Every structure is written in structure tokens, then in C-alpha cells.
Amino acid sequence: MSEVNINEDLVKERKKCTFDVEELIHLVDGGKHNTLERKKVEQYVLSIKELKDDVPEEYLSHKERYENSVRKGSILFMVLMKGILERKRNKDEGISYNYKIINGVVKDVTPFMLHFGMFLPTLASQASPEQQREWLKKGSQMIGTYAQTELGHGTFLRGLETTATYDADTEEFIIHSPNLTSYKWWPGGLAQTVNHCIVMAQLYIKGKNHGIHPFLVQIRDIETHMPLPGIKVGDIGPKLGFQTANNGFLGFDNYRIPRMNMLMKNSQVLKDGTYVKAKNDKLTYGTMVFVRVTIVADVAYELARAATIAVRYAAVRHQSKPKPNEPEPQILDYLTQQHKLFIAVSTSHAFRIVGRWLWSTYTKPEPQILDYVTQQHKLFIAVSTSHAFRIVGRWLWSTYTKVVADIRHGNMDHLPELHALACCLKAVCSKDASVCVEQCRFACGGHGYMQSSNLPIIYGIVTATVTYEGEHTVMLLQTARYLVKAYKQASEGKSLTPTVAYMAKYLKNGSHCWQNTPEGIIGGFQAVAAGKTKEACESLFRHAHARAVLCEMFWKEIQRISSTVSPSLAIVLEQLAELYLKYWALEKRGDMLMYSNITKEDISSLQRRYVELLALIRPNAVGIVDAFDIRDEILCSTLGAYDGRVYERLMEEAMKSPLNKEPVNQSFHKYIKPLLIQAKL
Ligand SMILES: CC(C)(COP(=O)(O)OP(=O)(O)OC[C@H]1O[C@@H](n2cnc3c(N)ncnc32)[C@H](O)[C@@H]1OP(=O)(O)O)[C@@H](O)C(=O)NCCC(=O)NCCSC(=O)CCCC(=O)O
Ligand SMILES: Cc1cc2nc3c(=O)[nH]c(=O)nc-3n(C[C@H](O)[C@H](O)[C@H](O)COP(=O)(O)OP(=O)(O)OC[C@H]3O[C@@H](n4cnc5c(N)ncnc54)[C@H](O)[C@@H]3O)c2cc1C
């Protein structure tokens, strides 16, 4: 982009960057090849002119917004189906480029998200090979979603009430919603978009309940899209975010499906009604593990969007006058002396000097808000957290693929550890990301509250991850259950799986010997997790294990990556990782005091180094967020665009308000004028 139209603060910021932004872009993408591929996809999709909106989404009604997102989502769907863009998952992190590009197509969430995110993955992982051949074949007319949650139950899956009763005479299942609370509630795309669902229902054979199982259910006619007889389906209405996700409700009235529509890879129901149990009944929960794993990298990306907007804006925005400087030490320093002798002269000098200082203060430009340490404190943790989640998300994805490969060969040994890891990392990353996005919004002051800044929409997307795919507290409690077991094994001298091996060290050494180094902080978090597990105090210890894993994996990976990149980039990466560790050590200093021998001096020195790190990162802040390399069309923000034309864009967007199309709105004549007339009387 030519620098002619770029805000001059941003030009200066980019000039003072000490590392090669391009190099970091390649690192973030997982290699230059991926960057080129991503850019190709972006260029292709973002130049489809039908994907541009005449009116910004947020001015449309609930219905129009849905219709517009289906229109645009269908164009993208078509592109994917035609194979013009092969929708492949980036093998490093489980996220496809197209998934990311979706933010450039629909600002909020597309109604097709669940089709790609859960419906197809469930068929791929839980249907038998023959079923997969049938259902995943080319030309399939299925658009689907994952219908598990009900009005009455979301967390407690054993409490789900939808039933699937086997009728051996007709070789069918009868799907039924026995009461209001058994209605499916929430699935994305369910309301008006999909024609099929994966329905999780209690399996009954000859009066015996075998627990919940997945079924493929057609709910609408392929040609007319009318709900099929026995199906009641609709929209659940507006929400905090996800306005275009088309979340729906669904009820069944003794609705029949063929026997072969139960997904039979893990358990089976034979023609005569014989039930064949799965090797491990938790395999039915497999899609949830998959999605929890991908959420870590998803929120890293959303956080990168929020941080890019807030950091660029903070470099463009100027606010407040600097503190007055101390007067220069001139003859005025001897004021008492002169006052005695030359009161008039000294007063004249005093006024001249004070007047000059006042003038320089008056004419001095306002500082960029990015120069305030408080602002850096709000923003840089968001930047480093995005990197931490991306890196840990990649590691989690590779752990996931290894465990899934083991499971394919019949080895389930590592499933409990993977489940515990996915639960706590999903919980902590989704919550931290929401807090950081909200901080980014605060950091943009009033303008951050504008929809056109896109921060409210990003917040709506991210805060949903705290709830969906396993509510935050519930996920932490699942990990807690695993930790208590691990601690018990450690105290019996049994060997432990790698991510909890630190328990044995704590048991042996008691309290952790504090050091202000990254390794010392990681050890500190492990001691906190082990110490709290020991106390088995569920309300307290749930975050610590995830924090220990995040700090350890982020720091180790950055150490490894640093040896492979140029020295100037290695410095920046280490500063970001160190900031992350210092920030959390300071946030959790109370815990560290409890479970290590950290001193008041250690804490002061951590604090000093933290402030030093803010100052070290400051000159590169804009370069670092530029290296997230998020195109303006995908940022969708008046405050965060590459050119920094913040005020012009705010005004341009405001002018799109339908209220600004006429000088006087009709409501004046209808309501305000009669009011004024009444007031006159
Ligand atoms: C809370 C639990 C885990 C409890 O399950 P439960 O059957 O009552 O379990 P239990 O009998 O107490 O047994 C616990 C046991 O089962 C294990 N386990 C639990 N889940 C898994 C798993 N996924 N993989 C492997 N193992 C799993 C646990 O570790 C326990 O093992 P243990 O007994 O300790 O050996 C479960 O019910 C659950 O996962 N609830 C959360 C529901 C959820 O995540 N729903 C997601 C709906 S889809 C969605 O939100 C999509 C949004 C996407 C979008 O819009 O983008
Ligand atoms: C935007 C969005 C999209 C969604 N998409 C889908 C979808 O596509 N398909 C689908 O099937 N579902 C979907 N869901 C539903 C989602 O998975 C559930 O909302 C989620 O699993 C939480 O369940 P719940 O709503 O029943 O909350 P509840 O379980 O009722 O939680 C309420 C409170 O109770 C607490 N609580 C519950 N159980 C325990 C416990 N055992 N111990 C301690 N505290 C507990 C929780 O911590 C929470 O504070 C979606 C939800 C949202 C918000």
C-alpha cells in the first residue's frame, strides 16, 4: 500500500520497527508457503463482488441479516463445493484459511458454521466406513448441524431427554421429544438453514436405556425445504452475539428414521435389536474434544483481530496534555535571595520563565495514547496472549492428532489426558480471550463501543466460546477430576503422564524454590497446581494447571523458535513470551506466596521488569500487530485499518446510517411536534 494516504503516526511507528515484519508473518502462518496460500485465498474470495454489502449488516433487521448471511454464506459454500478452493485444514493448527476468511464475508457468524465445524467432522469420525461412503460422497445434498443441547439440559448429557427407540419390526428408530424441556435448543443453522442434523438421543432397545448416541436425521425436504411431518423447527431469536448463526429449536413427534441412520462406528444396533457396545462409551463425545481443541487457536485469532484494532488505534489517537516540566534551574533558583534584593526584577524573570513554559506546554502535541504505560498494560498482554494461544493451540492440535491416531489403532490410553487438557485449555483460553478483547475495547475509549469498530462483534463471538462446547466451570471441574486422580497416583509412587508429571516433583520437594526466571515462574505455577490439588479444594485450584501448561509450552516453543529466526525477531518473541509469564506471575502473586518461597523483593523485581518489558515492546507494537497480517476486509474496523484513517472512517460509516438519509425524520411530525404544541399551551 502506498504510504501517501497512511496516517503519519503509523508511518513513523512502522519506520522504527526493529525486526522484519514479513518474517513474523511467515512464522504466524506456519511458513512462507502458508502465507502465500492464505493470501491467494483471501484475494480470490474478497474480490468476489457479490460478497460486498450495500448497507452495513448492523442496520438490517433480524430477518434481513439472516437472509443476507445465507446469501453470502452460499456463495462461499459454492466456491468450496466446486473445489475451486479445496477446504483443507492447516495441518499445524486445525484451522483452515477459509475459516478465517469467513470474517471477511460475514462480520458475525455464518449459518453454515456448524455444517463444516461439527456436522461433517462427526460423520467423518463417528459414522462407519460404509456410512461415510454413503453420506460423504460427492453431490451430497446434506446441509447439517449438531443438535445435542436441549432446553432443559446442556452440560449434563446423561440428562438429555430426546429418545431414539428401536422398532425391530420395521428396523427403524423412533425419535421423540417427550416434553418441552427435551426440545433441542441452540444448534447453529438449525432454524432455517439445514436439512439434516446429527441428533444426540437416548437409545432405547426393548425398554432398556443404553445412553446417548448420535443419529443422522433429515428434518426438511431437499426440494421444498419444508419441515418434514413430525418435525417442529424454528429460530430461538436474538442473542448477545451470533446474530446470523441461525441458532434453532427442534422437536420430534414419533419421527421414524432407518436403523442405518444411527452412526455406527463405535456402537451398533443390529437388525434384531442386539446392542453392540463401543470399546469406550466416551468416544461418543469425540466431536466435542475436537472442537475444544480447535477453540484455542480460534480465540487466538479473534484476539489477534482485537489487538490489531486497539494497538493501531492507540498509535493514531492523541489525548491529554503531558505533565508540566520542572522549571529550568536558572537564577530563579535563588528566588528568596533575589526577592530580598531585586523583587521587581526577579518577578519579571519569574513571569517570563513561567510564561515560556506555559507556552511550550500549550503548543506541545498531545501524546499518542500508546505511550501511556497504563495503555501498554492493557494492550500488550492481549498481543502476547494471542501468540501464546496460537503456539499452544498448535501443540494441542498435534497432541490431538497423535491421540486420535492411537485410538484408531485401538489404544485409548491417552484419551483421559487429552480430554483433561482440552477441557482446561478450552476453559482458560476462552475466558482469557474474552477478558482481553474487552480490555481492547476499553482501551479504545468511546469509539471502541461503536459497532463500526467491530470490537463489540468480536466480543460477542469470543464470549460465546466460554459457554458453548462445555461451560467454563464444568470444563475446569473435568480437569480437576483428572488432577485429583493424578495426584493420588503420584502419592502412591506410580508414574504419571507428561503434562502432570510435575505433581511428583512437588510431592517430593514440598514448596517450590522461587526464581524470577521463566523456568522459575513455570515451576511456580506447577507448584500452585500441585499444592492446590493437594488441598483438593475444588473452588480454588482449577485454573492453575492450565496456566502451568500455557506458560510452559509457550516459553519452550518460543525458545525453540528463537533459535530458528533472525536475532532481531528472536528478541521480540522472547520479550512477548517473558511479558506473558511476568504478567501472570504478578497476577497470581498471592498463590505464589502460598506455594513457593517468593519474597516481597522478588515481586518488586518482577514488577520492575514487567514495566521495562512494556517499554521494550512499545517501539515495535505496531509492527507486531501488522505481522498478524489481517486484511482490512477481515478486520472490519473503522479504528484498526492499516492506513489509520480513524476519524474519516468513523464519519464515513456514520453516514451510512439510514437515519442520516433525510434531514428530518417523520417521527418529528408524528410525535415531537404535537409534544411541542402541547408544551406551548
Ligand atoms: C460434563 C461432562 C463431561 C460430563 O459427562 P458425563 O457423561 O456426565 O460424564 P460422567 O459419567 O460424569 O463421566 C465422566 C468420565 O468421562 C470422561 N469424559 C467426559 N467427557 C469426555 C470426553 N469428551 N472424552 C473423553 N472422556 C470424557 C471423564 O474424564 C470421566 O472419566 P472418569 O470417570 O474420571 O474416568 C459432559 O456431560 C459434557 O461434555 N458436557 C458439556 C456439553 C457440551 O460440551 N456440549 C457441546 C454442545 S455443541 C456446541 O456447543 C457447539 C457450539 C459450536 C458453535 O456454535 O460454534
Ligand atoms: C452461541 C452458542 C452456540 C451454541 N451452539 C450449539 C450447537 O450448535 N449445538 C448444541 O448442541 N449446543 C450448542 N450450544 C449450547 C452449549 O453447548 C451449551 O449452552 C453449553 O454446553 C452449556 O450448557 P447449558 O446452557 O445447559 O448451561 P448450564 O449447564 O445450565 O449452566 C448454567 C450454570 O450452571 C453451572 N453448572 C452446570 N453444571 C454444573 C456442575 N456439574 N458443577 C458446577 N456448576 C455447574 C455452570 O457452570 C453455569 O454457571 C450453543 C451455545 C451458545 C451460547
TrEMBL record:
<feature type="domain" description="Acyl-CoA oxidase C-alpha1">
    <location>
        <begin position="364"/>
        <end position="484"/>
    </location>
</feature>
<comment type="pathway">
    <text>Lipid metabolism; peroxisomal fatty acid beta-oxidation.</text>
</comment>
<feature type="binding site">
    <location>
        <position position="149"/>
    </location>
    <ligand>
        <name>FAD</name>
    </ligand>
</feature>
<keyword id="KW-0276">Fatty acid metabolism</keyword>
<feature type="binding site">
    <location>
        <position position="188"/>
    </location>
    <ligand>
        <name>FAD</name>
    </ligand>
</feature>
<dbReference type="InterPro" id="IPR012258">
    <property type="entry name" value="Acyl-CoA_oxidase"/>
</dbReference>
<dbReference type="Pfam" id="PF14749">
    <property type="entry name" value="Acyl-CoA_ox_N"/>
</dbReference>
<dbReference type="GO" id="GO:0005777">
    <property type="term" value="C:peroxisome"/>
</dbReference>
<dbReference type="InterPro" id="IPR046373">
    <property type="entry name" value="Acyl-CoA_Oxase/DH_mid-dom_sf"/>
</dbReference>
<feature type="domain" description="Acyl-CoA oxidase C-terminal">
    <location>
        <begin position="543"/>
        <end position="676"/>
    </location>
</feature>
<keyword id="KW-0443">Lipid metabolism</keyword>
<dbReference type="InterPro" id="IPR029320">
    <property type="entry name" value="Acyl-CoA_ox_N"/>
</dbReference>
<dbReference type="InterPro" id="IPR036250">
    <property type="entry name" value="AcylCo_DH-like_C"/>
</dbReference>
<dbReference type="InterPro" id="IPR009100">
    <property type="entry name" value="AcylCoA_DH/oxidase_NM_dom_sf"/>
</dbReference>
<dbReference type="GO" id="GO:0055088">
    <property type="term" value="P:lipid homeostasis"/>
</dbReference>
<keyword id="KW-0285">Flavoprotein</keyword>
<dbReference type="GO" id="GO:0071949">
    <property type="term" value="F:FAD binding"/>
</dbReference>
<dbReference type="Pfam" id="PF01756">
    <property type="entry name" value="ACOX"/>
</dbReference>
<dbReference type="InterPro" id="IPR002655">
    <property type="entry name" value="Acyl-CoA_oxidase_C"/>
</dbReference>
<dbReference type="InterPro" id="IPR055060">
    <property type="entry name" value="ACOX_C_alpha1"/>
</dbReference>
<keyword id="KW-0274">FAD</keyword>
<dbReference type="Pfam" id="PF22924">
    <property type="entry name" value="ACOX_C_alpha1"/>
</dbReference>
<feature type="domain" description="Acyl-coenzyme A oxidase N-terminal">
    <location>
        <begin position="20"/>
        <end position="140"/>
    </location>
</feature>
<dbReference type="GO" id="GO:0005504">
    <property type="term" value="F:fatty acid binding"/>
</dbReference>
<dbReference type="InterPro" id="IPR037069">
    <property type="entry name" value="AcylCoA_DH/ox_N_sf"/>
</dbReference>
<dbReference type="GO" id="GO:0003997">
    <property type="term" value="F:acyl-CoA oxidase activity"/>
</dbReference>
<comment type="similarity">
    <text>Belongs to the acyl-CoA oxidase family.</text>
</comment>
<protein>
    <recommendedName>
        <fullName>Acyl-coenzyme A oxidase</fullName>
    </recommendedName>
</protein>
<keyword id="KW-0576">Peroxisome</keyword>
<keyword id="KW-0560">Oxidoreductase</keyword>
<dbReference type="GO" id="GO:0033540">
    <property type="term" value="P:fatty acid beta-oxidation using acyl-CoA oxidase"/>
</dbReference>
<feature type="domain" description="Acyl-CoA oxidase C-alpha1">
    <location>
        <begin position="285"/>
        <end position="363"/>
    </location>
</feature>
<feature type="active site" description="Proton acceptor">
    <location>
        <position position="469"/>
    </location>
</feature>
